[in-house]
Amino acid sequence: MKKRFLSLGLAAVMAMSLTACGGSNTAETTKAAETTAADAITEGSEAADTTAAGGVFKIGGIGPVTGGAAVYGVAVQHGAELAVKEINEAGGINGAQIEFNFQDDEHDAEKSVNAYNTLKDWGMQVLMGTVTSAPCIAVADKTAADNMFQITPSGSAVECAANPNVFRICFSDPDQGAASAKYIGENKLASKVAVIYDSSDVYSSGIYEKFVEESANQGIEIVAAEAFTADSNKDFSTQLQKSKDAGAELVFLPIYYTEASLILQQASTMGFAPQFFGCDGMDGILQVENFDTKLAEGLMLLTPFAADATDDLTVKFVDSYKAAYNEVPVQFAADAYDAIYAIKAAIEDANVTPDADAGTICDALKASMLNIKLDGLTGEGMTWTEDGEPHKAPKAVKVADGAYTAM
Fold first, then answer.
1. Pairing of strands 149-152, 166-168
2. Which DSSP state fits 161?
3. Contact by Cβ (8 Å): 394, 319
4. What superfamily in CATH does domain 8-171+312-392 come from?
5. Model confidence over 98-156: pLDDT tens digits?
6. Which of 226, 232, 284, 341 shows its CA 20 to 30 Å from the CA of 84?
7. In Å, what is the CA distance from 405 to each residue of 26, 363, 400?
8. Does this model's pTM top 0.85?
9. pLDDT for the residue numbered 393
10. Is 15 in a helix, a strand, or coil?
11. Average of pLDDT values for 265-290?
């Protein structure tokens, strides 16, 4: 197994990685658009029975569609479903249709491995997943042992792509931390910065460590670095008070949207109004139930996707997504959409057929991922290194009038 390492060029310019409502644990998609998970099961099964003689590529997906991280998993499921629908309606991959089966892992590593085994029993040939980092690391060990091709839309921990059969769409945690510090420094957003992070989470800690390292290069003073854990993620008054007392002009939040929404609420209550700056885990904060989105006004984050972008691909995707699911897509939906199209491009480059076994397909796609160039929602002219890392540039987004707005 070849050693994997971070691309230095990527680390210098990028920032994002990771790692909504959802019903059923399984969704199979072939020809028809889905509006709910239950609809997807029925319509996908019918389509699978009527696929043409060209055969069927079986692509599996894993992510949380229930539980605290469901916003991410449902977005990934929906984004992938839209891509599968488009590809199948356009004739498939070299004439072969795609059958898509998405399993719920509740953002739990053990359940994610169980979901992977379920998909293997179903006949999966390629895995699009998982969505969040800890489950992704657990499943990546299994796909490596099985020689199953895996592309994660949003698993951002370095370990997610440590094996040669795994590629990712999102940026890794270290890249995200470095790019956030570079953006803050180069745009002179603040000279005194506080960080509130989850020391029990690999995603948050990975971003934090690289952010601190790059901040020194940018002349940014870290005036407070306040940790919390998964067991103490409700009351942030101590962390906020220390940040305020230290004179922080900006508070960097390399955390998920649930905790971020509480921090913004509590900061408002105590009259603390610095610039808040987040990462891709922040995407979804505007959908938090009972959260006053006015509190997020002015919030900034780096992301590879902005729903208000005016290019043709983004406009088409956003319109299709809103029509199918009655909401504006977040970055994770775009990540998944690009992941399915990357699989398509790699299969076409490798010229593999649906009757090939998963191991044969994996060997072919590992080589083809180094050949393809994808104009996607999350990056134009995306390419991949042999380390599984994408080459693309992040975008800065700011919440304005209750919506994400590209800067």
1. parallel
2. G
3. no
4. Response regulator (3.40.50.2300)
5. 999 999 999 999 999 999 999 999 999 999 999 999 999 999 999 999 999 999 999 99
6. 284
7. 33, 40, 6
8. no
9. 81
10. coil
11. 94
Distance CA 247, CA 194 (A): 9
pLDDT for res 54: 60
Q: Is 130 helix (H, G, I), strand (E, B) or coil?
A: coil
**DSSP readout, 254-306?**
-S-HHHHHHHHHHHHHTT---EEEE-GGGTTGGGSTT--GGGGTT-EEEES--
Range(s) for CATH 3.40.50.2300 in the chain?
8-171+312-392, 174-303
Residue 378: Cβ-neighbour burial (10 angstroms; 0-12, 13-18, 19+): buried
- Of the pLDDT bands very low, low, confident and very high (cuts 50, 70, 90), residue 405 is confident
Q: What is the pLDDT of residues 362-380, one digit of tens each?
A: 999 999 999 999 999 999 9
CATH numeric code, 174-303? 3.40.50.2300
Using the predicted structure, report yes or no on whether residue 5 has a pLDDT greater than 50: no
Which of 217, 220, 195 has the alpha carbon at shortest distance from 208?
195
Kindly write down the DSSP assignment for every residue of 166-194, as one continuous string. Answer: EEESSPPHHHHHHHHHHHHHHTT--SEEE
**CB-CB contact of 200 with 48 (8 Å):** no
Average pLDDT over residues 319-337: 96
The predicted-structure confidence for 143-200, as pLDDT tens digits, reads as follows 999 999 999 999 999 999 999 999 999 999 999 999 999 999 999 999 999 999 999 9
Give the type of residue at 227. A
Tokens at 88, concatenated:
């199948």
For the beta sheet containing 221-228, the strands, ordered from the edge strand earlier in sequence to the opposite edge, are 221-228, 192-198, 250-253, 275-278, 300-303, 395-400, 403-406
Which tokens hold the place of 338? 């690009």
Residue 365: which of 383, 380, 343, 385 has the closest Cα? 343
